[in-house]
Amino acid sequence: MHLPPSKTVHLLLYSCVFFLFQSSISAQQNPILNICDSPGNYTNGSAYETNLKFLLSSLTINASSSNGYYNTSSGADPDRVYGLAQCRGDISSGSCRECLNTSMVEIVRRCANKKQAVIRFDYCLLRYSDQRFFSQLQNGVIVYVWNVQNASDPVLFNQRLGVLMQNLSTTAANEPSASKFATDSINFSDFSNIYGLVQCVRDLSNSDCYSCLQSMVGRIPTCCSGKIGGQVLSVSCNIRYEITSFFLSSPRPPPPPVEALPPPALAPPPHDEDSNSTNTSNTDGNDNRTRTVLAIAIPVVLTFVAVTAICACILRRKAFKRKIDRQDDDEIPNVNSLLFDLDTLRAATDDFSDANKLGEGGFGPVYKGKLSDGQDIAVKRLSRRSSQGLEELKNEVGLVAKLQHRNLVRLFGCCLEGEEMMLVYEYLPNTSLDTFLFDPIKHVQLDWETRYKIITGIARGLLYLHEDSRLRIIHRDMKASNILLDSEMNAKISDFGLAKLFGGDETQGSTSQIAGTCGYMAPEYITHGQFSTKSDVFSFGVLVLEIVAGRRNAGFPESGPSVDLLSYTWQHWTRGTALELVDPALGNHYPTRDVLRCIHLGLLCVHDEPAERLPMSTVVLMLNSYSITLPVPSPPAFFVESRTRTDVLAGDSNIPASECEEPTNCFPANESEPPTNNSVKYSTNELTITELDPR
Predict the structure, then answer these.
(1) C-alpha pair distances (Å), 316 with each of 138, 310, 319, 331, 655
(2) Domain ends where: 426, 442, 472?
(3) Which residues are catalytic?
(4) How many domains does the chain have?
(5) Which among 33, 35, 235, 308 is least buried, having the fewest CB atoms inside 10 angstroms?
């Protein structure tokens, strides 16, 4: 096989490195993680093997010579190989290079002829695959390492460790230099600190990095609760803690970005010619002078080229940043690229036939469709009586189409022709959560594992909207029918028709037009029109309790004076009988600790005062970690069922009757009639608060 010169150099370098390190491999520590379970193999001498060797040497050289990270691919389909190399953020380039060289040899030795493989040492990660995996979160394999010695005060140790890991996770996921790496320490006692380190693969999004780290933190109790040292890691991220410092005092700063470096060229061997003794000395002299000139000229030329490349990259980066800044300053993105033709959607939905109708909400019916390329879609056809106008729709499409998160429904685009206004979303086969949760037959399909996955998925989606997206987004209509489920029952938040978007540090707003779904709206929004991220937290708390109980937030005849789910839950919580709230369809097949923790979190989220409700970042942490002690819940905002679905609160509510899918719970407790003025009374509760230990 004939190879281009550059690829031949890579192969030569790979061979040199292989033999150079083969003799010293036995002295290296074993990898912490090694995955070779590839679905396919390659044969020796194949194009795939050639591309793999080229890729591994390229990864090793570029990652160690730049900023400790590099990803690329080699070859062409079907023999293309994708690869990634990353070193720990605090080690030197020399240590990085040594670790990657070892990894390059070991991954081939341990995973011989495998088309996919991962190897992770303490200082570096190396991965390759025949499938593109960049920016994808992978936590399928988890590895635990721990110190067998226990802390002197395990409870306090776990509490302090939880605080440290939460701070590190937040820092790494939002690290300005995009290194996705953080180290710090926290005081444990007068004579001891806890030192921690976290790191994600750098191509992960901020939200996926945070989610990955929180998943690792949540597994600490599985292996390392109360232990003085531990490490939990996966392919995408890892965490580690010790009571002695094990990292450098500060991460090494990444150098300016440079173009990928080819392997160093090998000098050709001297060309031998016949000569006699009379001209040998002259030839040697010429060779010496040539070597001297080359020894001076080559470094000068290489330095000039490197400086020029760095300057060009910096200038190009600044120009790109100015371009992005100009784009961010635009009020509304261009939505022309997101427009669908009306005839296309008519053909996809069989002219919006009733056979393809999936359901109908407050803004209009939703239809299933199939595009000409086989893509399944869901088309929301806004009714003419909808209050959502053309400009508002354009704003929503332009902004929501940019949201990319696994727990948000993907918006493909819209159709704006004549009087028609339609939104086109990805189609999810399991429709919405309410069709399972509140159905007397289908709810048995929701075992506890599925319900817990749905709760955590909703929490992560809200965290992205509130903190990780480019703009802060308040959904304002979180409810079971707006949580869609994909084929694997993963939760995806949908319907941003009422969403409010904020920039900068804005976190709240107010309106005189109250719109939403009764039973899920926060009390401050109903009574004063005030909404914030904590309004969504309240709705999330209601959702959590509905998922646990398998019931809507409506009346409970068997609950005595309680007429809503929040009151019913609080009664059982204070009596110590919270497990009576659990959906009977679950039987006894659920972990008591998880259920109690979810009920506890739900009550914390529906606190009457917005400031006392948990932020979604804390909710996500508490769903993934049992080392964090939950605060004592307080009585939730109490409501009673109103007489009809169309009653108006305090004269300035504007809740569409079609949006009140359940009997409204929009009036203060102890009042059988709607208030006649803007003052709102709340009931008091004299019961003693009893905190249940979720463990």
Answers:
(1) 33, 10, 5, 25, 52
(2) 426
(3) 477
(4) 4
(5) 308
